[in-house]
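Notes from the 1:1 (GR / supervisor)

We went over the backlog. Supervisor wanted to see one worked example end to end before approving the batch request, so GR pasted a single chain during the call. The sequence is below; no edits were made to it. Supervisor asked that the structure be written out right there so they could see what the output format looks like.
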Amino acid sequence: MKPIILCIDDEKTILNSLKAQLKTALGDSFRFELAESAYEALELIDELVKEGEVIVLIISDWLMPGMKGDELLTSLHGKFPGIIKILLTGQADKDAVENLYTNAKLYRCLTKPWSEQDLINCIQSAIDCKSSAKQEK
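Structure output shown during the call:
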C-alpha cells in the first residue's frame, strides 16, 4: 500500500496539473487521489480510511463551492491530526489562513499560480519533517 496524497480543487484542470507535476516529481512513491469539492473529499477520505489506506498529505484549494478549504482542513485536523495540510489558493482570506495555522496546523499556504519547484520542495520538506518526527519517537 502506497501512502496517499489527496488534492482537492473545484477546477479539474488544476487537479490534473497538480497530479501530473506530483507524479513527475515524486514518481511511484505515492498514490495520488483527486476530489473536486470538500464534500467529495470527505466521502473519499472515509472510504480510504475504511479500506485501511494512509493519507499522508492533503493539498486543498480555499475557495470552493459549498465548503471552503479552511473549514474542510480544520474539520479534518480534528479527526486526522497527523495528516500534513497545504493550502493552495489564489484568493484565501488572510484571517482564514491564520486560523488554519493555529487550528489545523497548516504546514504551508502557497499561492496560485504556484511554482512547481516551490510546491515540490514544500511537499518534500513536509514529508521529511514528518519522517524525522516519527524516527525521534
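Supervisor's comment: The mean pLDDT is 93.
Batch request approved.
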